[in-house]
Design a protein that fits this description.
Largest sheet of chain A: none
Strand content of chain B: 5-15%
CATH topology of chain B: TIM Barrel
Number of domains of chain B: 1
Shape of chain A: flat
Number of strands of chain A: 0
Number of helices of chain A: 3
Number of helices of chain B: 9
Shape of chain B: globular
Distance between the termini of chain B: 24 Å
Strand order of the largest sheet of chain B: 1-2-3-4-5-6-7-8
CATH class of chain B: Alpha Beta
Strand content of chain A: under 5%
CATH superfamily of chain B: Metal-dependent hydrolases
Bound molecules: zinc ion
Oligomer: heterodimer
Radius of gyration of chain B: 17 Å
Largest sheet of chain B: 8 strands, parallel
Helix content of chain B: 25-40%
Number of strands of chain B: 8
Number of domains of chain A: 2
Helix content of chain A: 40-55%
Structural class of chain A: mainly alpha
Largest interface: A-B, 34 and 37 residues
CATH architecture of chain B: Alpha-Beta Barrel
Chain lengths: 98, 278
C-alpha cells in the first residue's frame, strides 16, 4: 500500500521552485524560536519535556534517512499502551510529559 | 468541483461559512457531535444540542443548497465523566431515527484514560444494537499513536464489527497504516497547527493511494478553515494530480462510506462521478 520512492508526481526542481521559499521560511522560524529560548531572561525551561523532545526530533530533519515526518511523529508520541488511570488535563501537550 | 466535507462542526460556525462553502462546491456535510469548549453541567444540554443537529442545522444548511447530516454521541472530550456518559447514552436513541442521523460519532479517546475507553466501548455497544455506522475521533498530538492503537485493537477484537463501516478520523503519518491496514476508513483533517496541512495530506494520498481515504476541514469554534477542502483540491491540482483522482477523494469516497447508511442520498450527482454504493 505504501509507496515512498517516486510517489510525488513533481520533479525535485519543480518541488524546489514551488516550495523552497516556504520551507526556508519555516526553517528560519525554528532557528528564531531556539534563539528566543537562548535569549530568555530566565533559562528555566532547559529540561522542560517539550524542549527536550523538540531538540531530540530536530536531529531527524538534518539526517539523510527517509520518512522523516513519521520518525518525528513517533519521536513525539506516547508509545505506551496502558490507559491512564484518571484524566490529568483536557488538552495534549505535543510531547510526552515525563 | 463538488465536494463533501465529512467533518464540520457547523453549530460553531456562522451562516457566512455555509455561504462560502456552497460557493466553493460543497454539496453535503456531516456534523459529528462535539464538545462545547467546556464540560457540560447537565445531560439536558445534549437533548437541546441533538435537537439543534437534527432540526435547526439541516434547515440552515438547506438555505445554501447544502445537505446536512449528523452523528450522535458524547464527545471524547467529555468521556471521562462516566455518569454523564451513561445519561447521554440514554438520550441518543430518542434521536437515532431522525432522517439526517447517519450513525454514532465522533466517539473515541482524548487523553486515553480508563473511563474514556469504557465510554468508547459503551458507544460501540449502542451502535452494534442497530448496526449503525461509526465515526471515530483519534486523539491529538502525543496521544494520537497510543489512542489509535488502543481503539484499533479494541475494534478488531470485536468480531461483530465490520471495519468497512467504521471511520477512524484524523489520521497522520504514524497512524494511517494501522488504520487502513486493518480495513477501516480514514480521514485526513485539514486543520492548522494540531493536525495536517494541505501539503502533508497530499503527501499521504501520494503514498497510500485513494482507497478508503477522505479529507475534511473539521472546522469548529477553534482556529480552523471551513473551505479547507477546496484548498486541498487546489494543492492536488498544483501537484499535477488528475481530476478523477481528486474527485475520488473529495466526493466519491465520502459518498461511498456514507451511503452505507440508507438515509444518505445525494440530491445531485457531480457529472462524471463514479459512485460505488455498498
Ligand atoms: Zn470533530
Amino acid at each position: 500500500m505504501d509507496q515512498y520512492e517516486k510517489s510525488c508526481p513533481l520533479t525535485q526542481k519543480e518541488v524546489l521552485d514551488a516550495d523552497f521559499m516556504k520551507a526556508r521560511n519555516n526553517l528560519l522560524e525554528i532557528a528564531a524560536f531556539l534563539d528566543r529560548l537562548d535569549r530568555a531572561k530566565a533559562l528555566d525551561g532547559e529540561d522542560d519535556f517539550r524542549l527536550v523532545a523538540f531538540r531530540r526530533v530536530l536531529k531527524d530533519v538534518a539526517n539523510h534517512e527517509s520518512d522523516k515526518v513519521k520518525r518525528m511523529q513517533m519521536g513525539l508520541s506516547d508509545l505506551s499502551i496502558e490507559p491512564m488511570v484518571e484524566r490529568d488535563v483536557q488538552t495534549a501537550f505535543g510531547a510526552v510529559k515525563m | 468541483m463538488q465536494y463533501i466535507d465529512l467533518h464540520c462542526h457547523m453549530s460553531s460556525r456562522t451562516t457566512d461559512d455555509y455561504h462560502m462553502m456552497a460557493l466553493t462546491g460543497c454539496v453535503a456535510i456531516t456534523e459529528p457531535s462535539f464538545w462545547a469548549g467546556y464540560d457540560s453541567c447537565t445531560p439536558d444540554y445534549f437533548r437541546d444540542y441533538f435537537h439543534r443537529l437534527t432540526d435547526y442545522e439541516p434547515k440552515r444548511a438547506a438555505q445554501y443548497g447544502i445537505q446536512h447530516y449528523a452523528w450522535l454521541c458524547l464527545n471524547p472530550k467529555e468521556a471521562e465523566n462516566r455518569e454523564m456518559a451513561k445519561a447521554v447514552l440514554k438520550i441518543i436513541p430518542e434521536f437515532m431515527d431522525m432522517p439526517n442521523i447517519l450513525g454514532i460519532g465522533e466517539i473515541g479517546l482524548n487523553r486515553v484514560t480508563r473511563n474514556e475507553l469504557a465510554t468508547f466501548i459503551d458507544h460501540v455497544e449502542l451502535a452494534m444494537q442497530t448496526n449503525e455506522l461509526i465515526h471515530i475521533h483519534t486523539p491529538h498530538l502525543e496521544d494520537k499513536y497510543k489512542g489509535t492503537k488502543v481503539m484499533v485493537d479494541t475494534l478488531i477484537s470485536d468480531k461483530r464489527l465490520t471495519p468497512g463501516r467504521v471511520m477512524l478520523d484524523h489520521s497522520e503519518e504514524h497512524t494511517i497504516e494501522m488504520i487502513l491496514g486493518n480495513g477501516f476508513w480514514t480521514g485526513l483533517t485539514l486543520y492548522p497547527t494540531t493536525k495536517v496541512t494541505h501539503g502533508r495530506a497530499v503527501d499521504m494520498i501520494e503514498r497510500y493511494g485513494t482507497e478508503r481515504i477522505c479529507v475534511a476541514s473539521a472546522c469548529d469554534w477553534g482556529p480552523s478553515h471551513p473551505i479547507a477542502v477546496p484548498e486541498f483540491i487546489a494543492e492536488m491540482r498544483r501537484r499535477g494530480h488528475s481530476e478523477e483522482t481528486i474527485r475520488k477523494v473529495v466526493y466519491e469516497n465520502p459518498a461511498e462510506f456514507l451511503s452505507q447508511c440508507p438515509k444518505f442520498k445525494l440530491k445531485h450527482t457531480e457529472p462524471g462521478a463514479v459512485l460505488r454504493f455498498a
